[in-house]
């Protein structure tokens, strides 16, 4: 006879998954505020023992790599969601930017650059993200909705700067970030403007910041 009761093993796995989520969210908050914070600060914020944290992550660098990988997965999912959307190309792009701001895309890039080794998997995923974002920009550009000269590097830097706004509590900070995103979106939508001075950041420049 089937039973809906969860087995002890399944229960432990579910609890471990919840703990891991709590640890990663705590790490994201701690290291965004202070990249030099010790890993013990993450354990304290997450409400777990330091030994429990080290059972999942062998070092601070290992944890930072996982955070970077998580952030890239989140960003890539939002690019693909925007590319899959029908309807108005500008609205799809603007919605993508707002969601990226809310999920923290780019929030750790400047803060943690050079703080961990870039693995081949991270580099591969970075290239995948770059190409997907290029496709999104090209579609928006083809619809006549994007200012001339805007490239992938511009989007990365804009998101990083928006996440650098750290005023007030979390709610106030989020509202301010969206305030300035609205101004940026207005500028990005000015299709009758001349190209911006100087070229945008290249993939090599953005990638190079992670090297020690």
Structural class: mainly alpha
Say which CATH homologous superfamily of the largest domain is assigned.
Answer: Tetracycline Repressor, domain 2
Number of helices: 10
Which CATH architecture of the largest domain is right? Orthogonal Bundle
If you average the pLDDT, what whole number results? 86
Tell me, what is the CATH class of the largest domain?
Mainly Alpha
Question: What is the total number of structural domains?
Answer: 2
Overall shape: it is elongated
Low-pLDDT segments: none
Tell me the strand percentage band: under 5%
Please count the beta strands (DSSP E, at least 2 residues each). Answer: 0
According to CATH, the fold-level topology of the largest domain is Tetracycline Repressor, domain 2
Rg calculated over all Cα atoms = 20 Å
Could you spell the SSE succession in H and E letters? HHHHHHHHHH
The main β sheet shows up as:
none
In angstroms, what separates the terminal alpha carbons? Answer: 58 Å
Q: What is the helical fraction, as a range of percent?
A: 55-70%
